[in-house]
Amino acid sequence: HTGEILDASFSPDGASVATASADGTARVWDATMDSPSIVMPGPMAPWTNAVFTKDSKRVILAGADNHVRILEAATGQPVSELSGHPGPVVAMDLSSDGPKLATAGTDKIARVWDASSWKMSREFRGHVAPLLPWHSAPTVSSSRRHLMTDRLASLTSLRARPSPFSPGIPH
After folding, report:
1. With 80 as the cut, is the pLDDT of residue 161 above it?
2. CA–centroid distance for 149 within its chain
3. Nearest-CA neighbor of 101 among 21, 42, 158, 155?
4. Cα separation, 61 vs 161, whole angstroms
5. Which terminus of the chain faces fewer neighbouring Cβ atoms within 10 Å, N or C?
6. CA torsion, points 88, 84, 10, 71, in degrees to nearest 10?
7. Alpha-carbon span 21 to 3, nearest angstrom
């Protein structure tokens, strides 16, 4: 990379490392080598996060261009693109067993996506500040029943329909 590395994560099988950089590239590295095996050019904006799917076959990349992209880890070929955030996506979490992806950004919105169809399943508005990775990365519980966001520890059920008093809005 020629810019700062903003995020790095190991694949669940331990064989690879994905890095997201301010230079607008993401890379997948063989964990035993010193050079990248795949270089993925970015969207003319920094990649902010990188995470592997639970089977280690795909890399999910969040970008400062308001999109999340899913790519084949072995080739860098695009699989899907998630859009809907009106601001940069700066944090994300994949549930421990893989079927839910939570994304959050400077737009004060958290979204939950179905990782089999890559369709948005829920949107959570009402946060009082941008959702930034160092203090409010979205976290999906291992049971996939709850999403936690922001410094105030906003905990929301992913199963129950939210009440009118909850920031969660079903889709």
Report:
1. no
2. 13
3. 158
4. 29
5. C
6. -120
7. 6
Residue 132's pLDDT is what?
A: 52
Cβ 118 vs Cβ 82: under 8 Å:
yes
135 SS3 class: helix
Evaluated on CA atoms 151, 70, 8, 86, the torsion sign reads negative
Tokens of 163: 């009440």
Interatomic CA distance for residues 55 and 121, integer angstroms: 22
Q: What one-character-per-residue DSSP string does 46-94 give?
A: -EEEEEE-TTSSEEEEEETTS-EEEEETTT--EEEEE---SS-EEEEEE
Q: Can you read off the two tokens belonging to residue 18?
A: 């994905």
Q: How many helices (H) and strands (E) does the chain have?
A: 1, 16
Distance of CA 43 to the CA centre of its chain: 16
Amino acid identity, position 103: T
What is the number of residues in the chain? 171
**Which of 104, 154, 155 is closest to 133 using CA atoms?**
104
- Please determine, for residue 97, whether its predicted confidence score (pLDDT) is greater than 50: yes
Burial class (CB in 10 A: 0-12, 13-18, 19+), 72: middle
**Whole-prediction pTM:** 0.75
> Residue 170 — very low, low, confident or very high, per pLDDT cuts 50/70/90?
very low
pLDDT of 53:
93
